[in-house]
Design brief:
The chain has 309 residues and is α+β, with helices and mostly antiparallel strands. The chain is 62% helix and 8% strand. It has helices at 11-29, 32-41, 50-69, 73-96, 99-126, 133-150, 153-162, 170-189, 193-216, 275-292, and strands at 224-225, 229-230, 240-243, 246-249, 254-258, 267-271, 303-306. The strands form 2 sheets. A 4-stranded mixed β-sheet has the order 1-3-4-7. Strands 2-5-6 form a 3-stranded antiparallel β-sheet, with no helix packed on it. A hairpin with a 2-residue loop joins strand 3 (240-243) and strand 4 (246-249). This is Bidirectional sugar transporter SWEET. One of its GO terms (cellular component) is plasma membrane. It is found in: Cell membrane. It holds the Pfam family MtN3_slv.
Length: 309
């Protein structure tokens, strides 16, 4: 038997399969915070649907592989769960996305999750001999998985260029590393190279991301803050001093403040105004934040005032 989920005649296979399912379960649920933000704002903002469409394609592809191969219940169970979760993400995205984003998402879904998958199913069942179907389909899964694992290269290049880990979620990288280890072990114990080899690449790229995070991570300083700012015709602002809850910046500066460990989850843009408009702007921002999260704690107000010239 190659992969019974709870068959203790093969404890190594069982334990690695269960570990892979648990960790992948957490990875699949990682975008929940993003969609909670979408629900509160009633808008998808600048979020892209591509990761969810690709993840759905990956899940249905591995389900088909598990069915053709047989005796691969850990692969079947976690990807069935992932298929349902990713489909729910896409439906939720379509509910709040603007019209152009909806059309793009529908096009991605039809091309990748319907047409491409149907083509792979048709070729596997009708054009490939029975004894080669597992090998052919496994090769397709391997190639696609490697392409997905190589995708973070764009993030790695951005981190190196900017020397900033703002867009590098360390918790997700850590979970992906553990997931790669668990599924590599499962592929090793079941002698399945199509599961084993892609996770070598996944482990490598996840470790590179974590290494870059700790290399470029800037320690927090209680007395100083560096805010990414822009201003009309002005040079980038230098590090600013924080005294209590007051941050001093030049008038008309735009301060971009991340409100989550994963920057794409939510960003607040605050414009520094002069003293005459300060109270009205602060009140309006506090009201907006309270309306966006009525059940949460009251928003923390940090005063940002023009710096003395």
């Amino acid at each position: 038997m190659a992969g019974g989920l709870f068959h203790m005649a093969h404890p190594a296979i069982t334990l690695s399969g269960i570990a892979g399912n648990i960790i992948s379960f957490l990875v699949f649920l990682a975008p929940v915070t993003t969609f909670l933000q979408v629900y509160r704002k009633k808008s998808t903002g600048g979020f892209s649907s591509v990761p969810y469409v690709v993840a759905l394609f990956s899940s249905v592809l591995w389900i088909f592989y598990a069915l053709v191969k047989t005796n691969s219940r850990p692969l079947l169970t976690i990807n069935a769960f992932g298929c349902g979760v990713e489909a729910a993400y896409i439906v939720f995205y379509l509910a709040y996305a603007p019209r152009k984003a909806k059309l793009r998402t529908a096009a991605y879904f039809l091309v990748l999750d319907v047409a491409a998958f149907a083509l792979i199913v048709g070729v596997t069942l009708f054009a490939v001999p029975k004894h080669l179907q597992v090998k052919f389909l496994g090769s397709v899964c391997l190639a696609f998985s490697m392409a997905v694992f190589v995708a973070p290269l764009s993030i790695i290049v951005k981190v190196v260029k900017t020397k900033s880990v703002e867009f590098l979620p360390i918790s997700l990288s850590f979970c992906l590393t553990l997931s790669a280890v668990a599924w590599f072990c499962y592929g090793l114990f079941t002698k399945d190279p199509f599961v084993m080899y892609p996770n070598v690449g996944g482990f490598f790229f996840s470790c590179v991301q974590m290494g870059l995070y700790f290399w470029y991570r800037k320690p927090r300083n209680a007395n100083a803050a560096v805010l990414p700012t822009t201003s009309d015709g002005a040079a980038a602002a230098a590090p600013v001093q924080v005294q209590g809850q007051v941050i001093e910046l030049p008038v008309n500066t735009i301060a971009i403040l991340s409100v989550s460990p994963i920057p794409i989850v939510g960003v607040h843009k605050i414009e520094v105004v002069d003293s005459q408009n300060k109270d009205a702007a602060a009140a309006a921002e506090a009201c907006r934040m309270a309306a966006a999260n009525p059940d949460g704690p009251p928003p923390q107000v940090i005063e940002i005032v023009p710096a003395a010239l």
